[in-house]
Structures are given as structure tokens and as C-alpha cells.
Design goal:
Strand content of chain B: 15-25%
Number of helices of chain A: 15
Helix content of chain B: 25-40%
CATH topology of chain A: ABC transporter involved in vitamin B12 uptake, BtuC
Strand order of the largest sheet of chain B: 6-7-8-3-9-10
Number of helices of chain B: 18
Distance between the termini of chain B: 42 Å
Structural class of chain B: alpha/beta
Order of helices and strands of chain A: HHHHHHEHHEEHHHHEHHH
CATH superfamily of the domain at 7-240 in chain B: P-loop containing nucleotide triphosphate hydrolases
Number of strands of chain B: 20
Strand content of chain A: under 5%
Oligomer: heterodimer
Largest interface: A-B, 29 and 41 residues
Chain lengths: 331, 505
């Protein structure tokens, strides 16, 4: 018996069926989409789907780490709106001094990342230092960020100066080698996230803490610091997503980023990360994000079902994904 | 006992496989009314699997479970309980946020539309009184120490009016006094005609309680005996399959220079003003009752609890606030609670082994090959028996979990190792292996502190013994002065009176 155990596992082992489930669902959706509409696989549509997935996608990758370490962040949607509002206001205010130019936009981006970092730090400190449940903390900050942006916009919309918007537009609409910038950014974040989760101490500690934080503490893991880092990382990624999002519409309002938090959490869960923590799968999250966007896209392209039922179908998928995963792990 | 009563619950040629691995190879086993049947064997011999099959939690791959001579009519633990077959698990089946009373009546609450709280509380109190337990029916399980939880678990089984009662190491976490109460209840149930299955690693308990003994080894029955047919030595030999000489290593060595000096050390709210020294190459035993502050002292030393006082490592004053700082000063602590604080049960062996020393396995990217190599070494060095090396640690037997936890703790090569309850719930064969590991550590010049409730263990391992009582040091014994009576006196606090009135001794 121990002889078998002495041999290190060799070769690449295929992930189990439950791990491949979301991937199969994604492939099924692509086949279905191609079958229903000739335009579905056109470059225009693919770029459109991926670019729209990118915002939620970057946030969802950060969310994967938060959830894996046993936390949760409900504030990301309103955080994005808040960051967008502050960023646009700052750029408008600096415009007379700096003029329209690349430095202004770079400064705006830096401000977005800094606000994201601070927002994440606030959530993280309240969870780790004050010892408040993540659900409660982020429910609170969700309301705070949302109301702050509404207040900043005075109930209306904060719009970026027209000239700046023209200069900033390519960050969403253009790209490198025909791949839009948001898609590139999402791809890089996803790859870095996957590597961090599987091959660095940070990822291993996240899983250990989510699995049993007492064991992690007894094993010389700096539990509070890792938890704090997951929220800060998520805040930064929300900032990055906002940088890509602002040039799309050039404005922010009280309804910007509405329900993004639920889409991000849904993508994480569909991808096979355990909601109670302890096991994270970043590539699964990417698949989850794509599944959600494709459903939306297919409903809009095909006349089968009213697009108004989009939410209902996504809801069924979320529940189904969890039921299937549980069924397989119990067997 | 001489008349062969018909079995109440019986296994016939039961086999059980998990995947391709057969765990049980054709077990015949019977429980009879009014009899205590002890099932003993090393960790991983198949006891737990047998109990799970008897209790309806898992089905055998082949063979039969028979209740009252007919195929058992249950397919789940709940159905088995309804049929009068009750299991007291080692992992407690209590809802931590409910009260004692709510747990005891869970699923069989009294009252029609509204709950009859008063009747349930009175019933609970009666059961607890029967068990001589001071636990209040309104107490939440979460707030109770492990030993009280065990008593609640027993009370719950009594409330179920079991015809067959299966007990998985009920005494492992109880104090001596509580064990006495448990034994009285077992005697009472036996007299009432209940069929009892008892397991324990304490063979003297088996000798005292069991009317019938079945010894398991590697998933097969190797010995059946009636009361008085088998000595404790005989049981141990049958379990291990070889002669066990003295399971404790020979007393050794002369201790070296001072490794640790602790002065006026307090861990609020329990531990107060503890001072002691620890030398290189020495095994220092810490004895005392559960709740005397032994674990709190150890956790204070390694930075798991806020503490005050003076600590010197090799003559240099040190302050330790976190486990990382303790590790940096060459100190490591092995917890008594391996399932909740020691190991990640749903992770693999590799992830558990390297968790506390992960920075050594590559930065920024972890090297899986190096981790695998460390695991290969640990499996060989500590004789960890895992059917598959990528399995979850929760599926390992208790003994192998403990060996893995020891490997994990020693991976950082600490100079000072504090081991809290090194062999709780572990079979005698694995015990002697762990004793050998501890001895080897001391022989290599490391300092070992062993905290234990197991008296023979303290006596067999320690060069010096500290005894704790009510959070304070009650005394220190060394060399020839280490004896069971001397320790018990200090533990119980009778030493001072004895000193004042020498004629009473």
C-alpha cells in the first residue's frame, strides 16, 4: 500500500468530469449560437462579446481569490461606479491645467487604480482588523459607494469632457493586432490569476485559509494579511476594469455597474470555486463569465426567447451548475 | 455469558471495497443482548468501517448485515436509529449552535404544534443527572469543552433508548472521573439487555468492560476471545502481529546546554506566573488535568495567544507574537486538535505537509517537484501509510494523520518542539513509532516538550516532568522522583497537605 504512495504522481492528469462541466456547457453554447445565427462567429460579434465580458471578467478573477479565502465582496459594482465618477471628475478638473493629452489620461488611470486600492483596503481592513463578517462589511460599503457616486453626480450623470473622451475612446474601441485592449487586459489578468492561484504561495494560502483558517493560523500563515491582500487585489482589478469601461460611454451615474457584483459572484460559482471557500479555479471563473455573456448574446441574436428572460436563464444556469457540481463530488 | 444468546446485530462475511482497494475481507461479527463486545485493532485496521456498516451509514460491497436474524431493514443512519441501532461517533454529531437540550431531542421534539420546552429540559436534566454531568441543558454545544460534548453525545444515545449501542472510542477525550461514570452507564445498559460495541485504544478499559473481544488487523479478524482469555499483552500482540517489547524507548542521554528559559510567564486569563527551563536533548513532560492550562501555556509560548513574561532562547531574550516569529526562533508547536487546527482535511498530503514551510518551496513560483520530493521523504521517514498519495488527508486513518502532522511540524527542522497529546486516539503500534520519533529528536540534540493526559506516556518519555494545576506550576519532578503517585499528588493538589502532615502519607 505504501509502495504505491511512495511513487510520485507522474504525467498530466485530466481534470475530473465536474471540472470539465462548465467547459462543456460553454462549448455547447458556442455550437448553439453558431447554429442559430450566422453572424455569431463573425469577428465583430466575438469581439463584442469578449470586450463586454472583460469588465466583469477582471472583477470576477479578483473575486475568485476573495471567495477562495472564505470571503465575499458585494461592493464591487458600486465600487466601479464610484471609481468611474471620481476618475471622470478628476480628469475634468485637471483639464484646464493639463490640457487634453496622454498625461491627463494616464493620471486619470492612476487615480482610478488608487481609488480602487483604497476602496479594497477599506473593505479588507474592516474584515480583518474590525473582525466584521465580509457579507456585512461589503453590504455596507456597497450602499456607501453607490450613494457617493449618486451624490457626486447630483442625481444625474457625470460626463467626461468631449475632447478627452475622443482621445480616450481607443482604449475600449481599439487594440493590438486586431484584439481589443479590454480583451487583452482580461486575458493577461486571467493568466496571471491562474498562475497565482496554482503556483504561488499567495494562492495556496488563500485555499488554506478558506479551507480552515485555524489550521492556516497554526501553520504560521499570516491569515489577516492574506485576507487583506485579496480585497486590495480585487479593488485594484475593479479599478482596472473601470479604466477600460469609462472610454466606452464616457460617463458615470448612480446606475453604473449595477448588479456587477452578482454577475461576478455567479461567474465564480459557475466556474467551480466553492462559495464557502477552500478551493479556487480561476480558469473556471473565465469560463463562467463567458457562459453568462454568451447567454445574453445568443438571446439578443436569436428570436427564440425574449431577451427580457435573460436573467431567468442565467439564474437557472447558476443553480444548475452548483447542483451538478455537488452531485458529482458526492458520488 | 456462557450461554450463546442469539445475536441481535450481526455481520456475515462482509466485504467492503473503496474503488479497487478492499478494506474489509470477509468479516463475521456479532453483537448479543446484555453483552459488551470490544472491537480492537490498529488505526486503519477497519474498525470505523465496520461501525459505519453496522450503523447503516455505508453499505457493504458484499455479505450481509442481519438484525434479529433477518436482513437489516435500514439503509441510512437515521433508519438504523429508528430500528434501535445507535452510534456514538468519534466526530461528534452535535449541532454546535443549538443547546444541549435541543440537541438531545433533535428530530424527536416533544409537543404537538408548539414545542414542550419544559418537558424536554426536564428530560435532559434527568439524563445528565444519570451521567453525573454538571452540564446545563441550556448550554450551547459551541461553548462546551470536548469532554462535556462527549457526555452530551452519550446522553443523546441514552435518550434514543438504543437496543444496540455502538461506541467509537468514547473515552478518548474524557477525564478519569468521567470515564468512571461512562463505565457505570455501560454496566447499567448491559444489565438492561442492550447489546454494546465498545472500541478503545486503552486496553485496560477493554479488559475491564468487555465480555467478548474481537481483534482486527488489516481488515480481517485475527483473534476472537471471551472475557479473561486474552491479556492486554496478548491483545497488543494480536493487533500488531508481532511481539511488542517495551513501547517506550530506553531512557537516554544527558541533557545539554540551556535551550529555553521561561520566567514569570502568564497567558491570560488562565496561566499565571509559570517559570521553567528546557535543555537541549531533553524531553520535558507536562502533566495536569484537561483545563489546567497546559495547552494555553504552549500556545502562549509560540505566539498563538497573547502572553506576558520573560523568554530566553540560548540566553538571548526573545519576544514572540506570532507563529512565524516562533518558527524564526526555531520553535514549533504540534496541536492536540489535529482535525480542526492541525490539518486541512479536504486537501492532499502534499499541500498539508508543506503549508507551514511554503517559502522554502520556491518563490515566486512553487516547485511541485520539490514538494513531491519532500512528501516522498516524509512518507518514508515517518512511515505514513496512504493508499494513494494524492488523496485527501481526511480519508487517512488517525495514526497516519498524526504522523503526517508530525512530519509537517518537523519539516522546518525546529530546535524546540512542543507536542500536545502526541498519541491521542492512536493505536499502540503507531504510538511506539511516534515515541521513537520523539526519542530520535532528543538524541539529535533537539528539545522536546510533551504535553499529555496519558500517564504511562509521561512516565515513559520524560526526563523531567512539570505538573500544572489551575493555570500554575504545581511542581517539577526529575529522575528517580518521577512516579505515578508523585505526579497524581501534584495534579490533584494533595502534595502540599501531604508535606504539611507527613504522618498522613
Amino acid at each position: 500500500m505504501s509502495d504505491a504512495a511512495l511513487r510520485p504522481a507522474t504525467g498530466f492528469r485530466l481534470p475530473g468530469l465536474s471540472a470539465l462541466g462548465p467547459l462543456l456547457a460553454l462549448i455547447l453554447l458556442i455550437v448553439l449560437g453558431a447554429f442559430l445565427n450566422d453572424n455569431f462567429l463573425s469577428q465583430g460579434n466575438v469581439t463584442n462579446v469578449l470586450a463586454r465580458s472583460a469588465f466583469i471578467g477582471m472583477i470576477a478573477v479578483g473575486m475568485t481569490f476573495v471567495i477562495t479565502s472564505g470571503g465575499l465582496d458585494l461592493s464591487v459594482g458600486s465600487m466601479a461606479a464610484f471609481i468611474a465618477g471620481v476618475m471622470i471628475l478628476a480628469m475634468n478638473a485637471l483639464l484646464p491645467a493639463m490640457g487634453v493629452g496622454v498625461p491627463l489620461i494616464l493620471l486619470g488611470m492612476a487615480i482610478a487604480l488608487a481609488v480602487g486600492l483604497l476602496a479594497g483596503l477599506t473593505n479588507g481592513l474592516l474584515v480583518t482588523r474590525a473582525g466584521i463578517e465580509p457579507f456585512i462589511v461589503t453590504l455596507g460599503t456597497m450602499g456607501i459607494f453607490r450613494s457617493l457616486v449618486t451624490w457626486l453626480a447630483d442625481g444625474g450623470t457625470i460626463s467626461l469632457d468631449f475632447a478627452v473622451r475622443q482621445l480616450y475612446r481607443p482604449v475600449y474601441y481599439s487594440g493590438l493586432f486586431g484584439v481589443a485592449w479590454p480583451i487583452l487586459a482580461f486575458a493577461l489578468v486571467a493568466i496571471a490569476g491562474q498562475v497565482a492561484m496554482r503556483h504561488t504561495r499567495f494562492g495556496r494560502y488563500c485555499e488554506a485559509i478558506g479551507s480552515n483558517d485555524k489550521v492556516a493560523l497554526y501553520s504560521a500563515v499570516n491569515v489577516d494579511r492574506i485576507r487583506l491582500l485579496t480585497y486590495v487585489l480585487l479593488g485594484l482589478l475593479v479599478g482596472l476594469a473601470t479604466i477600460m469601461y469609462v472610454p466606452r460611454l464616457g460617463s458615470a451615474s448612480g446606475s453604473t455597474g449595477m448588479l456587477w457584483e452578482l454577475e461576478a459572484i455567479a461567474a465564480v460559482i459557475i466556474g467551480g470555486t466553492a462559495l464557502k471557500g477552500g478551493y479556487g479555479r480561476v480558469w473556471g471563473t473565465v469560463v463562467g463569465v463567458l457562459i453568462l455573456s454568451l447567454i445574453d448574446n445568443i438571446l439578443n441574436l436569436a428570436d427564440l426567447v425574449s431577451p427580457y428572460l435573460n436573467g431567468a436563464i442565467q439564474g437557472v444556469i447558476i443553480v444548475l451548475a452548483v447542483v451538478l457540481q455537488r452531485g458529482k463530488s458526492a458520488a | 455469558m456462557s450461554t450463546e444468546a442469539a445475536p441481535v446485530l450481526e455481520l456475515r462475511d462482509v466485504r467492503k471495497s473503496f474503488g479497487p482497494i478492499e478494506i474489509l475481507h470477509g468479516i463475521d461479527f456479532a453483537l448479543r443482548a446484555g453483552e459488551v463486545h470490544a472491537l480492537i485493532g490498529e488505526n486503519g485496521a477497519g474498525k470505523s468501517t465496520i461501525m459505519k456498516i453496522l450503523g447503516g451509514f455505508i453499505a457493504p460491497t458484499s455479505g450481509e448485515v442481519r438484525l434479529d436474524g433477518r436482513p437489516a431493514p435500514y439503509a441510512s443512519g437515521a433508519e438504523a436509529e429508528a430500528a434501535g441501532v445507535v452510534v456514538i461517533h468519534q466526530e461528534f454529531n452535535l449541532a454546535p449552535d443549538l443547546t444541549v437540550s435541543e440537541n438531545i431531542w433533535l428530530g424527536r421534539e416533544l409537543g404537538r404544534v408548539f414545542l414542550d420546552h419544559r418537558a424536554m429540559r426536564a428530560g435532559t436534566q434527568a439524563l445528565l443527572d444519570q451521567l453525573d454531568s454538571h452540564v446545563r441543558p441550556e448550554a450551547r454545544i459551541r461553548d462546551l469543552p470536548v469532554s462535556d460534548r462527549q457526555m452530551v453525545e452519550i446522553a443523546k444515545a441514552l435518550a434514543r433508548k438504543a437496543r444496540v449501542l455502538i461506541m467509537d472510542e468514547p473515552s478518548a477525550v474524557l477525564t478519569n472521573r468521567e470515564v468512571e461514570v461512562l463505565f457505570r452507564q455501560i454496566d447499567r445498559l448491559r444489565a438492561q439487555g442492550v447489546a454494546l460495541l465498545y472500541t478503545s485504544h486503552r486496553l485496560e478499559e477493554v479488559t475491564r468492560l468487555a465480555d467478548r473481544v474481537t481483534v482486527l488487523r488489516d481488515g480481517a479478524v485475527v483473534r476472537r476471545a471471551l472475557r479473561g482469555e486474552l491479556t492486554e499483552d496478548g491483545m497488543a500482540t494480536a493487533m500488531v502481529g508481532r511481539d511488542l517489547q517495551d513501547i517506550y524507548p530506553a531512557k537516554r542521554h544527558h541533557a545539554g546546554e540551556l535551550a529555553l528559559e521561561v520566567r514569570g510567564f502568564s497567558v491570560p486569563p488562565l496561566v499565571e506566573d509559570v517559570s521553567f527551563t528546557l535543555k537541549r536533548g531533553e524531553v520535558l513532560g507536562i502533566s495536569g488535568l484537561v483545563g489546567s492550562g497546559r495547552t494555553e501555556l504552549a500556545e502562549g509560548l509560540v505566539g498563538l495567544r497573547p502572553a506576558s513574561g520573560e523568554m530566553r532562547r540560548g540566553g538571548v531574550p526573545v519576544r514572540i507574537h506570532t507563529v512565524r516569529e516562533a518558527a524564526a526562533h526555531g520553535m514549533a508547536y504540534l496541536t492536540e486538535d489535529r482535525k480542526e487546527r492541525g490539518l486541512l482535511l479536504d486537501k492532499t498530503l502534499r499541500e498539508n505537509l508543506t503549508l507551514s514551510t511554503l517559502p522554502r518551496f520556491g518563490a515566486p513560483f512553487l516547485s511541485t517537484e520539490r514538494e513531491e520530493a519532500a512528501l516522498t521523504r516524509a512518507i518514508a521517514d515517518f512511515d505514513i501509510r496512504a493508499p494513494r498519495r494524492d488523496m485527501r488527508v481526511g480519508n487517512l486513518s488517525g495514526g497516519n494523520q498524526q504522523k503526517l502532522l508530525l512530519a509537517k511540524t518537523l519539516l522546518s527542522d525546529p530546535e524546540i518542539v512542543i507536542i500536545d497529546e502526541p498519541t491521542r486516539g492512536i493505536d499502540v503500534g503507531t504510538k511506539s513509532q511516534i515515541y521513537a520519533f520523539i526519542d530520535a529528536l532528543a538524541a539529535r540534540g533537539k528539545s522536546v516538550i510533551v504535553i499529555s493526559s496519558d500517564m504511562p506516556e509521561i512516565l515513559g518519555l520524560s526526563d523531567r516532568v512539570l505538573v500544572m494545576r489551575h493555570g500554575r506550576l504545581a511542581g517539577e519532578l526529575a529522575g528517580e522522583r518521577i512516579s505515578e503517585t508523585a505526579i497524581v499528588r501534584l495534579v490533584m493538589g494533595t502534595a502540599e497537605e501531604a508535606a504539611k502532615e507527613p504522618t498522613h502519607v
